[in-house]
Amino acid sequence: MAKKISRNTFTMDSPPSIHSYASVVGQKEGEGPLGSCFDMVEQDAHFGQQTWEQAESEMLKRTVNKAITKGGLVPDNIDYMFAGDLLNQCISSTYGLRDFNVPILGIYGACSTMSEGLVLSSLLTDSELGGYIIAVTSSHFCTAERQFRFPISYGGVRTPTAQWTCTASGAVVLSPKAEAPYVKAVTIGKIIDLGITDANNMGAAMAPAAAYVIKTFLEDTKMLPSDFDHIITGDLGKVGSKLLIDLLKKEGIDISQQHMDCGCMMFDIEKQDVHAGGSGCGCSASVLCGYFLDKVRSGELKNILFCATGALMSTTATQQGESIPSISHAVMISNNSQPLG
Amino acid sequence: MEESLNAMFMDFLWAFIVGGLLCAIGQVLIDYTKLTPARILVSYVVAGVVLGAFGLYDPIVKLAGAGATVPLTGFGNNLVLGVKQAIAEKGFLGIFTGGFTASAAGVATAILSGLTVALIFKPKEK
According to the model, what pLDDT value does residue A57 have? Predict the structure, then answer.
């Protein structure tokens, strides 16, 4: 049974295993420094579909299929899924998964969705309510532009400092104790809003939420940053990453040696003309599934702390001048199954 | 012959300088302020209306031709001219009809070309 060691941190008694995982990305992501890590790079931004929304659903569906087959399973083996994305009513997930005939719970955590799905699925698995559980999320540049900025067909000029929403998707299949990697502990984040209203500066808005969850996790589990090979955030970008390190330094925690940000890793910021780095649910999910999990499985990395970060505003709230509430959840993923503490 | 070539060259040059300057201001606003593109476009139209109302835009049009009429400030100026003319012809009612009459050609062209382009082309990832 998962143990509640503080208000919002839980350690796993018999750490659930990440049985299999998969990542699918678009062309631009495939051309980035991590291009060779992903399971599939699709050159057609439409994924063979009519609309961008259908394209994102198709990408998410392919990711789930890939994760299932990589684990030597069929959809009927999956007990239930947690899925979410950035679009209204999470339609990428619901339309992408409607043919699977697998029980499903939709979740929304903006770009923190992968962490949220991992928190929920590992808690349930360690409470012996699991089986094979999938956590999946996605984002697509063209659907996100329509949702949060302007439709691509409008042809508007993008603000150069805006982050680039990744066309990417990641899925993990959790199961009770099997092979590495294992989820050892999780911390549920809280909403933090320091009043930033600039939707083109989401990294700065999300950094305090990441700082809170990292600090809470380390204090509750009595661990140090040096216990981890990497402390990974979702899409803070350059500005947000620097802010996160500064915020934690003020609290006496130095993560400058361990910190990595998926948004900064996804693209070659100079060559690919992506000033602020990548963002989107699929950014951290695909980098986790494409890059980090393989290294934890092989033992190259012993422990990582994965903290996908989400900005919880909507276009309506932004237009009404509201600031950006943010959240991040922490998931400790390890190469060994020794429970913490 | 040489004189008319010279005059034509000067027309091109002024159109380039004035039109380019208006666009450069827009680029600076996008790069260095938090204004959204839509707000910048609307500000341009309003600026054209204000300049036109005080008669300050026509001298720029005389100097730069299309360099001043094609950017959105020219559209604002056009609205003012239309309203002024309609008031002269119809009196009070002209305040409401003039702007639309003057901009009808531009708006109709924009809608029709938008429709045509949407029919022919498929949007792509930038």
Answer: 98
pLDDT for position B126: 62
A44 and chain B: CB distance < 8 Å anywhere? Answer: no
Paired with A139 in beta bridges are A168
- pTM given for the model: 0.89
Does pLDDT of A12 surpass 70?
yes
* CA atoms of A193 and A96, how far apart (whole Å): 32
Interface test with chain B among A51, A152, A197, by most B beta carbons within 10 Å: A152
Question: Considering CB atoms only, which of A152, A157, A160 is closest to B123?
Answer: A152
**Degrees (nearest 5) of the Cα angle A28, A34, A35?**
50
Across the interface, whether the CB atoms of B34 and A198 are under 8 A apart is answered: yes
**Tens of pLDDT, residues A87-141:** 999 999 999 999 999 999 999 999 999 999 999 999 999 999 989 999 999 999 9
DSSP designation for A3: E
Burial of A191: CB neighbours in 10 Å, binned 0-12, 13-18, 19+: exposed
Chain A stretch 170-199, residues whose beta carbon is closer than 8 A to a beta carbon of chain B: 198
In this prediction, residue B1 has a pLDDT band, given cuts at 50, 70 and 90, of low
Cβ separation of B125 and A198 shorter than 8 Å? no
